[in-house]
Specification:
With 171 residues, the protein is an alpha/beta fold. It has helices at residues 13-25, 58-64, 82-88, 111-129, 135-146, 157-167, and strands spanning 4-8, 29-31, 43-51, 54-55, 66-74, 96-101, 103-104, 148-149. Strands 1, 2, 3, 4, 5 and 6 form a six-stranded mixed beta sheet that branches. A two-stranded antiparallel ribbon has the order 7-8. Strand 5 (66-74), helix 3 (82-88) and strand 6 form a beta-alpha-beta unit. The longest helix has 19 residues, at 111-129.
Length: 171
């Protein structure tokens, strides 16, 4: 049984998703930094922000908790980077992965994070501007240019469905 939601967030998007999910399924929700009170081996659903295709905090959380399901919050459209992230993180077949779209908040970034994303921002804008764009790419371009949040609680629906089946022992 999953008993807790644990998350790692940098600019707040992952925290919003983790808290919204926990509220939907009536579970407690805790920042990984403050989760030392939970017993080792507790089953948790983990949310982390995506940095270079890696879900932040996951390895650390995995050392203490049982994580049957992990959710990565990045800039990409929900579900479009699952294979890339699964491969980069070498997730085993027993671990379920969901991805969600967070946002971009340049002003909240500091140090290396800001530097890396400034470079990625410049090259993504120039690459997107140089070609024909799908409606989704049009929104990606807007997000890169203006920043903001794409937080959408309705994108948690498949995760809630998975969670309900898991808790009922269907999977
Ligand atoms: C240094 C850096 C690297 C990032 N790399 C990726 C990435 O590889 N894929 C992606 O989809 N988003 C990437 N992002 C975007 C963040 O995952 C996105 O802004 C997310 O909403 C952050 O969540 P948070 O608000 O909880 O910190 C990156 C952001 C930063 C600052």
């Amino acid at each position: 049984m999953i008993t807790t939601v644990v998350y790692t967030s940098n600019t707040g998007e992952t925290e919003k998703y983790a808290k919204a999910f926990a509220e939907m399924v009536h579970l407690p929700c805790m920042d990984l930094k403050h989760s030392s009170d939970y017993a080792e081996g507790t089953s948790v659903l983990y949310f982390g922000w995506v940095f270079a295709d890696h879900i932040q905090g996951y390895e650390k959380a995995q050392q203490r908790f049982h994580i049957p399901c992990v959710c990565g919050v990045g800039m990409s459209t929900a579900g479009t980077k699952d294979e890339t992230i699964r491969e980069a993180m070498k997730l085993d077949d027993n671990t379920v992965l969901f991805t969600l779209q967070g946002g971009l908040h340049m002003k909240q970034l500091k140090g290396m994070h800001k530097l890396i994303l400034s470079v990625a921002r410049k090259s993504s804008i120039s690459s997107l501007e140089s070609r024909q764009r799908t409606p989704q790419e049009e929104d990606d371009l807007l997000l890169w240019k203006e920043g903001g949040s794409r937080f959408d609680p309705s994108s948690l629906t498949p995760i809630v469905s998975w969670y309900e089946q898991y808790q009922a022992g269907v999977m």
